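Thread amino acids onto this structure.
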């Protein structure tokens, strides 16, 4: 059984914070071989969405929501990660739906912006995001900026 946790930084236990940082390190630094400073002082201002396996209290999927005006003019979703043993099961899509629903319903934001790895363009487009930049290098990986505009929220989330 899986359960969702939505936490502000100060609400994360030391155990959960360790799990978040370990998952992000495993995926972005070790697996993708990308040397960068993951602890970027944005976590303290973000809402953290965690998908927890109740069987072993393990973190299965994660992302963070950064309020508008901090990273971008728009609300941002970032650090989207699914543990290697849970991939290909639709959890990334569920995670993104959870984040988008929260931003739409609770934050009532007009748009969401992401910096997406270019090879994930089709995945994010399937959620309604549109490309809004040329490709650029971020820490050795090609990225593109993408946006989801508020009037696109409802039509895309039910698919």
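Threaded sequence (159 positions):
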């Amino acid at each position: 059984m899986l359960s969702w946790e939505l936490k502000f930084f100060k609400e994360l236990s030391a155990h959960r914070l360790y799990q978040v940082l370990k998952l992000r390190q495993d995926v972005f630094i070790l697996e993708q071989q990308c040397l960068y400073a993951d602890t970027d002082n944005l976590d303290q201002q973000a809402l953290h969405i965690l998908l927890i396996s109740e069987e072993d209290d393990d973190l299965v999927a994660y992302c963070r929501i950064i309020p508008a005006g901090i990273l971008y003019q728009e609300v941002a979703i970032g650090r989207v990660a699914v543990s290697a043993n849970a991939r290909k099961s639709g959890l990334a899509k569920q995670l993104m739906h959870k984040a988008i629903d929260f931003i739409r319903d609770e934050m009532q934001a007009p748009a969401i912006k992401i910096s997406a790895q270019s090879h994930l363009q089709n995945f994010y487009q399937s959620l309604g995001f549109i490309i809004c930049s040329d490709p650029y290098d971020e820490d050795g990986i090609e990225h593109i900026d993408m946006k989801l505009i508020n009037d696109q929220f409802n039509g895309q989330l039910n698919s």
